[in-house]
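Honest question from a wet-lab person: if I give you the sequences of every part of a complex, can you actually get the arrangement of the whole thing, not just the pieces? Trying it with mine:
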Amino acid sequence: MDEFSFIDSIKQSYYKQAALKRGIGDDAAVFHIDEDIVAATDTFVEDIHFSRSTMQPFHIGYRALAANISDMAAMGARPMFYLVSIVIPTKWPMEEISAIFSGMDAIASQYQMDLIGGDTVSGKELAISITVIGSVPDNRARYRHDAKSGDIVFVTGTLGDSQAGLYLLSKENASVFKDADYFILRHRMPAPRVEFSLGLQKLNRVSLNDVSDGIANEANEIAEASSKAIVLYDDLIPIHSSLQQFPKEHQFQWKYFGGEDFELIGTVPEKDWPLVQEIADNTKTKVTKIGMVFESEEPRVYYIKNNKKQKLYKHGYKHLK
Amino acid sequence: MDEFSFIDSIKQSYYKQAALKRGIGDDAAVFHIDEDIVAATDTFVEDIHFSRSTMQPFHIGYRALAANISDMAAMGARPMFYLVSIVIPTKWPMEEISAIFSGMDAIASQYQMDLIGGDTVSGKELAISITVIGSVPDNRARYRHDAKSGDIVFVTGTLGDSQAGLYLLSKENASVFKDADYFILRHRMPAPRVEFSLGLQKLNRVSLNDVSDGIANEANEIAEASSKAIVLYDDLIPIHSSLQQFPKEHQFQWKYFGGEDFELIGTVPEKDWPLVQEIADNTKTKVTKIGMVFESEEPRVYYIKNNKKQKLYKHGYKHLK
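Yes, you can. This is the full assembly:
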């Protein structure tokens, strides 16, 4: 298959977004959005961000776009469009490249997103670069720098599931573990929290971040951007009941530093907490209060465990991964 | 330098575009544009799209962004923002990566463009993926499918310069050639025709394409998208006077199939041709009438040379480059 017939094969027969005036087929796409526009880009390289041994091509595409959609959720934005640049090694059969695009299409369809551009080039290693574009009502974009003292810190879903899934994918005997399929699915096909994030538009002030590198990292980003201290209560950090079958040190590592759960962590004024719970109910999202925001001379994150308060560092942060 | 200090080093101290509400520093950038929005993405891989033997890191960045800006010019759009994903092999010193970004910044500054996002990841080969976002007055985006019979076909600048430059860069004795520096500069630091393209907003109808793969390819794209025949007059194809020092077969190859000149080729109603010439004068752009558009049952491009009419194929097209 040459580039032309490949682009034809991924070209949509109709546009899902009414805002789109022109998708793939000219030098650029054209659209019109009356709200604020949100744009982010993320790149995934084989054997660094994913491995063929734990992901099928469909999952590679699904998860790559999920990570980008999660950035939109972290901004309070509705994902609308995506552009894909892909470097394809000659050893990859075109059918597997198509499967990557099918994976992206599967999650894009859930949000009526249109693929509006891209580039396919050959190279030595598979690299997928996605730009996602979304919209948010004017001045309703959610930033990390909006935490204030007295805020409640919340997180959606359960943490550490994706790392547990990755761990199980490295095991020959994964099936002896309880809920192995659940954890593996959470790793391969994570669900960004778009509906819940859009629900939060009812609130005047929310600081928000998505859990791509572990909550230790994300909580520190909020603390730094807002110049506040955040205290997390270890007992309250939500984990799946079957996570308890793994060694304690794994549990600790995964829930604080295990990335790629693509849950949301944020802070809201205490008075708005009941509204957040109502939005969670309405969007069938689990939400848990896990801490509080305090004034602080230096931005810091602590966790309290067995009545001991300890510093929580950005351990999840990786150099140039 | 780790990823954090690198991102700090490329983070702008102020925003050039008033439309930008939030640049680098959160999960995504936020901006507001009242006009139609135009977006495109392009990827460049070492040893496929560029080589260290002919390009310094500064030029690699400059030319990569120039190619993207040229896509905006091809749409009649004003470039505003860009996002950069870069895969960096460990053998590349961080200083050279910074030089790539300096090259991008040099051309971005000419258009007051802001770098609003990106991702830096490690990998085996250098790959740069750029998404560029621009704006165009509502329904003034220029497409390939708008050519009508009787239109004049025009092209900006001179053709084949970039390929001549690449040819000279492969020669030990480049300096014996006339205007070698000119051709090499045209290859390394091409100038997209943004001002001229914006000037064309005065016209109601223009079909437009940029010359990234050679005019044979681009003219065929317009003919196909518009279902018309295009006839080009070989005598009229503009070349630099010093291109004549190269063998005739090189001249022919470069002017029709030599890509990366990033000139514009388009068609306009004959009555608007004087206005196009005026816009060219005002923006100090050379513009040349090179052909005409005709009705045709099948889309075709011909060129007339020595009173002989021959088919011109999309020879410049390359599979998955």
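Two things worth pointing out. The two ends of chain B are 32 Å apart (CA to CA). Chain B has two domains: 3-136, 144-311.
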